[in-house]
Specification:
four-stranded mixed sheet; 21% strand; alpha/beta
């Protein structure tokens, strides 16, 4: 049964999931939980749009959201039915953001965290939203917990061109600092790094006091997302467009950036999580 409601002027479908704790295909990640289907941040570079092949939605990626309203109860049953406690880290989330605006009403992520906390299941969170601070009371109680904020730049204006409905980078950096000061392990995931627009030195300078770890992901232009990037560049940075797609595939360019990132991580005494390419 699907019920349609309205949240923050976005149509949200309430759906029932058959499974919520799922094995992950991401290297180094054993299990993943996605409380929502879709995302409304509107990031033009998002390659999770491939999910439309499985969701049945006809709306453009970024224009729909499903809330898995039975997720907390389902997770509770899945954990209780296990023969052994789950000791592998659980990642929230891989193809959505666990702290979308609809989370303010549905509180699916918070209720999921409450279930995971009962079992002291190790967790890692990745989000673009400062709403994660709402749950700091729970996060501090986990024996193993890390929270990451994803960003492509520290420039609020630049970010608004590429990720129009996400929290501003300045808000995300403040969230990281608050989490770290509260004793929660923090990391930044620079994703995607946009050639000629993201600034490696500036990112490390602004982030180093707020995090313990950092990872970087190269811009992916092979996942059906190039059209959105191209349109945004044409509108705001037309001088960068010639050769941009080719540059995004240039191994030598990324080799140099990776070395720069490793040097900066060493200088700032940050754990380097990796430089991820597609």
């Amino acid at each position: 049964i699907t019920k349609r409601v309205t949240v923050n002027s976005m149509g949200v479908n309430e759906i029932l999931a058959r499974s919520i704790l799922q094995k992950s295909g991401i290297p180094g990640v054993s299990f993943v939980i996605n409380p929502y289907v879709g995302c409304v941040h509107g990031c033009v570079y998002c390659y999770a749009r491939f999910m439309k092949r499985f969701t049945g939605h006809v709306e453009p990626w970024g224009a729909f959201l499903d809330a898995r309203v039975n997720a907390p109860d389902l997770l509770k049953r899945q954990l209780e039915n296990r023969k052994t406690p789950l000791t592998d880290e659980v990642f929230l989330s891989s193809v959505t953001d666990p702290y979308l605006p609809a989370e303010k009403q549905y509180q699916l992520t918070r209720r999921i965290l409450e279930v995971l906390l009962e079992h002291q299941t190790p967790i890692s969170i990745l989000t673009k939203s400062e709403l994660v601070l709402r749950d700091i009371d729970l996060l501090r109680q986990f024996k193993r917990c890390s929270v990451g904020l994803s960003m492509m730049t520290t420039d609020d204006d630049l970010a608004s061109r590429f990720e129009p409905r996400a929290s501003a980078p300045s808000q995300r950096i403040r969230a990281l600092k608050t989490l770290k000061e509260s004793g929660v392990d923090t990391y930044a995931f620079v994703s995607p790094y946009l050639p000629r627009l993201s600034n490696m030195e500036r990112l490390f300078e602004r982030l180093q006091s707020a995090i313990g770890e950092i990872g970087i992901e190269a811009l992916n232009v092979r996942a059906g997302n190039w059209a959105g990037v191209e349109q945004t560049l044409q509108k705001h940075f037309p001088e960068l467009l010639p050769g941009y797609k080719q540059l995004a595939k240039d191994d030598l360019y990324w080799d140099d950036l990776e070395q720069q990132a490793r040097n900066l991580a060493e200088r700032e005494r940050l754990t380097f999580m990796g430089f991820f390419r597609h």
